[in-house]
Predict the structure.
Amino acid sequence: MPKTSNSVGLTQTKYFNIEDKILLESGKEFGPIQVAYETYGTLNDDKDNAILLLHALTGDAHAAGYHDENDKKRGWWDDMVGPGKAFDTDKYFVISSNMLGGCSGTTGPCSINPETQKPYALDFPVITIEDAVKVQKKLVEFLGVKKLIVAGGSMGGMQALEWSITNADMVDSVIIIASTSRLNAQGIAFNAVGRNAILSDPYFNNGNYYGEEKQPEKGLAIARMVGHITYLCEEAMHKKFGRRFQYSDKPNFDFNIDFQVESYLEHQGKTFVDRFDANSYLYITKAVDYFDLAQKHGSLKAAFEKTNSRFLVMSFTSDWLFPTSQSKEIVQALIKAGKDVSFCEIESPCGHDAFLLEFETQTKIVKSFLSKGEDNA
């Protein structure tokens, strides 16, 4: 376990079980559900100092710290969570859970269906962001939280927006980072290509690949490669790779890896299959595609008229997956709805991944936003 300043230290993933079925947005009932989660800090006596962190597409419950002394991998937002950090665990009770449909401890396609004693696979119901929030609400109530702040980047920002609308009386403040109120056609297209790579894999077997010697690794790796391109930007890719060759200073004149960027994407794809499930990728990307607050509520303004929260919206100059224009659309609708909203566009060459990398700038902005909330409390 590497030494880092202001770390929450060793953490443990815990599990909460929802025994009753929940009504999904599709109209189907589903349950029971297990939820994987971690907490950092202490819930106060008034039970109103909680912050719920909502992960991006392939995240999990492990947002901060390390799981054991030999663990070399920090939680996915470790730079933002801990004593004195943006989400200060000396002040706040921070909660992070794995999303419904995931593959890191929360019930998803790879979980055992109690009716068949086999993995759900494609018998798992199609889910939405609203369904994920329903499950998170059950967890938050179980933990005894009365009021909370919700915060997330990318898909996590979508969940935070949904939280503010469907649980308006519970959510005090909302932090939206590099996110959107609805995916544009380009974003849906990239997700479709990723899903088709998985569905076309010869070992996908209609989702029933669990326990088989051959897995749809190639399809999932390609899906990750496509997705990863959207997380970067031209400037970042040029700076990191340019047109440099991987193994020599001249072409191979074949179809093996020539360029450094090819090698990087192949590495990202290979490492991804070790930690993620192909079926989960199908379900979660579909949930992201379906998310559209304006369509659901009649307009974005009408959606935000249902919230009682303060908002902080942040975007990044080089993010072309969820560009600043989409954040401004959220901000403008919040203003029209008469809501308290702060907005900041951060200069960054890191593309969409900036919300995981530009922690120093984000920390200053988040701390200022949260301190104003404390002053108004």
